[in-house]
Design a protein that fits this description.
Helix content is 0%, strand content 49%. It has strands at residues 12-17, 23-28, 32-37, 42-48, 54-59, 65-70, 75-79, 85-89.
Length: 95
């Protein structure tokens, strides 16, 4: 079955699917990351903090932690459950 999820206002550049939860995360040129509940096919969380497009996502294998990387030269660490940014890894160049 084909499914289209609509929610970003610009191109999607990265996806990550949780092994532990029915969630998919999407990263976009619109500077945001969204968490999709794959059982309801709806956005359940938004992650805002990047200053430009977001291109990559990674999930911790055992903790509810999401890492996003973007053109703002930062990797941002998020608590998946609260959508709160818990750490910024800055100082990257040529990202």
């Amino acid at each position: 079955r084909l499914l289209t999820l609509t929610g970003h206002v610009n191109a999607v550049r990265g996806l990550a699917i949780s092994d532990r939860h029915p969630y998919m995360f999407s990263a976009s040129e619109d500077k945001s990351v969204k968490c999709w509940d794959l059982e309801t096919n709806r956005i359940i969380r938004h992650y805002h903090g990047h200053l430009s497009g977001v291109y990559s996502l990674a999930l911790h294998p055992t903790l509810d932690v999401l890492v996003s990387g973007g053109r703002d030269s930062c990797a941002r660490v998020w608590d998946m459950r609260t959508s709160k940014e818990v750490h910024i890894l800055g100082g990257h160049i040529n990202t």
